[in-house]
Every structure is written in C-alpha cells, then in structure tokens.
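Same chain as my last thread, 345 residues:
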Amino acid sequence: MALSGTLKDFGIADILQLIGHQTKTGRLVLRSGGDEVEVYFIEGNVVFATEKGRTAKNLLGNLLLRAELLSKEQLDEALGTQQRTLKRLGDILIEGQMVTPPQLAQMMRLQTTETLYRLFSWKNGSYEFSQEDVDPARSAFEPIRAESVLLEGFRRMDEWPALKKKVPWTEATFEKVKDLDTRDLPSIDDGGLGLDGGEDAEGKPTERHKLVFRLAVGGKDVQRVVDASRVGEFEALKAISDLMEWGFLKAVPPPRGTKALAQGLKIAGREPGPARGGGAPDLARSAGAAGKRPRALPDRARRIPGPAARPGRGPARLRAGPPLPLQRDVLLPEDCAGICIVASA
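reply #2:
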C-alpha cells in the first residue's frame, strides 16, 4: 500500500487509524515546515519514532541525564565510545551497565510517545507511507497500538490548554500543604509505574500522583519534576494540577522583578549597592529585564530638555537603556549594568 497526501486533507488521526486497522508494516514520513518525523510500524503497531533535527534536550542521552539516570560524565564517556565504535548509544549504556534494559526501554518509549503526541498539533504538511520491512530490534520497548496513540492524542489535545493555565510556570517550586503517604510507592525503574500510573479517582491519588508529590516536595521545580518523573510533560503536569486542586501542594511562582534582583544578589553573596554614577539601582529596569514591563514614566518625566529649551535649569533625570536580554529568572548584579544618572546642563 502506497499512501501519500497532505495533512490538510487526511489528518494524522486518519492515517494512524488506517495503518492500525489494516495492520500494516512500514515507514510513515510526515513533514511540516522544517520538521520531519519518521514513524515505524509492525503489523499496525508503533515500534519506533524519530525526529529529524531533534533538539538536543530531546535526544536520548539528554533525556536520561535529565531523568537523573545518568551523570554528565557517564554520558560524555558513552558518546565518546559511540564516536569510536559507531554502536547505538543504548547498546553502549547497557554494556557499560550505566542503565538497565528496563530503564532504557522506558525512556525510549517516552521519547517515541512524546514525538507522536506532538504530531497532533500539526495542521499543515505532508505524509507518505511505504510498506517495507522494519527491524524489530530498533525498539527496546513493547510495540504501541496505533489506536491507543490515537485516543491518547485526542485526550491530550482536549485537556492541554486548560492544563497549561493551571501550571503556567516551569520554574515554579512547591510548598507541601498536607502530607501524602508515599512509603508504598514502588520503583519506577521497571517501566510500569512511570508509564501507566493507574486510573485517576476523584480526590484519590494514584501511584503517579505519589511519585510527582515526592519529587515536588523534594525541592524540584516544575521542569525538573517533569524530567525526573519519566511520565512525560502532559502526565506530570496533570498530576501536579490534581495535587494542587486536592490541597496537597501549593505552587510558589518564580521570583520576578525586584525579588529576582534581591535573590540574585543573595546568590552572588553581594549586598545591593549604588549603580554607576552614584545613583540608586534602577529596579524598574531590572523588572523589565526579568520579563515584566516597567511602569511608563509620565510624559513630562520622559522628556529631558536641553540648555536651549530650559536655560539655567538642569534637574537630574534617570535614563535607562533598553532592557538587557536575560536567560534566567534570577537577576544577578551584572544584569543591572549600564544604568546611569544623566544631568542636563
């Protein structure tokens, strides 16, 4: 069966349904803009998905690193071996006993499913399916039924917008509001808990909720909870949202503006001091650098007339340049450089 066309006429849901229903084996290539994804099927089941130009953070090695299954030193060593031997990274990690086969299977499955679910947001592009032999050894996990991917993809598309509103900050941390017993929580290294987690019951935490709770009260922010939980972004955020709604956790937004500046100074071990030129630090500008728009000055304060316009009068005016680009949420003292007090003649 040769199948090709545009996603506008035949969407990803229709494609998966057709391949699954007809139990086809082969390779599906989807393209949208500069993105390209290849999905491999055996008898209608997904065995592997790969993304061309996959971002560094979504590569297998970095997924294992962020899940706290590998150290940076171990990953560098494995990548060096891969360059010398051209072996697959997963094989190197298992041979070196850096990860176990269940841990590798769990993360490869997560990598594949996260790639698949992102396809449901594609509205334009093209697809092409070709029947061909697929090596089962490409996958370290049990094949995934196309129908289950279809149903889960629709569920996520329906719930995702509301979920992002409930948990809008990836840098937020958490305060424990009430205890949740996690003593009976089994290991997630067997690949079962981290992927399924049981059925949700209103107000009754599942094993997945307990896992996320334990990570959250351990001091991790939202992104680190997502990474270490190994359940994927959607499922981790859903568990966080439930725990907040049920009164187990309270989100602490990341510091912004003057609070971020104060925290940055504290981290740097320095006290706030005068800005260049002897004036006070421009906290409004710091807030702008941290992502908040500084309050606009009145029009009369923004104008700095020259000597001709205001002879003999030259009150000092505060002049700040454009906000500096900031790659972090905690302001450090160097973020406030370049501020000066200008006095007209």
